[in-house]
Write a structure and sequence with these properties.
With about 150 residues, the chain is an alpha+beta fold. The chain has a domain at about 55-148: GSPII I/J protein-like (Pantoate--beta-alanine Ligase, Chain: A,domain 2), CATH 3.30.1300.30. The chain is built from 2 helices and 4 strands; from the N terminus they run ααββββ. The chain has helices at about 1-10, 35-85, and strands spanning about 90-100, 100-110, 120-130, 135-145. A 4-stranded antiparallel sheet has the order 1-2-3-4, with helices on one face.
Length: about 150
Amino acid sequence: MKSRQASSTLRGGRDGCQPGTIAAGARQSGFTLIEVMVALTIFAFCAVSMHFVLSQSVDSFAKIERKSFATWIAENRLAELRLEEKFPAAGNSNEDVEFAGRDWVVSTVIANTQDPNMRRVEVTVNLRLPNIREPVFVTQLTGFLGKN
């Protein structure tokens, strides 16, 4: 019996396998390289998709914010015209406005209508961006002013 144990030990271990090898029928734990690569590929696709969705969300938020600020500016200009004591004459005007930490260009076009007691007012708001020479169109508001 001692000779059997000695020969088994000489061959590498109790189960007869070489040191560092897995015995036949023994259960292996962990992941194979293929499984890890597949998992990393899936994770990469998910990460890229999430990045794309988040960047679109941030872009949408910036556009909505810009549009909201420009609409406020246009509504303010129309309210200023309504509050003026004298009835405005037909004509064009441009004004630079600083609002919400940005530079805006407000263009106002006052036009006659068929009724001499009414004026049509178009207020166009453009945003000046640092990298672009011409202001970028953001919104346009049209309203009417009546003579008191």
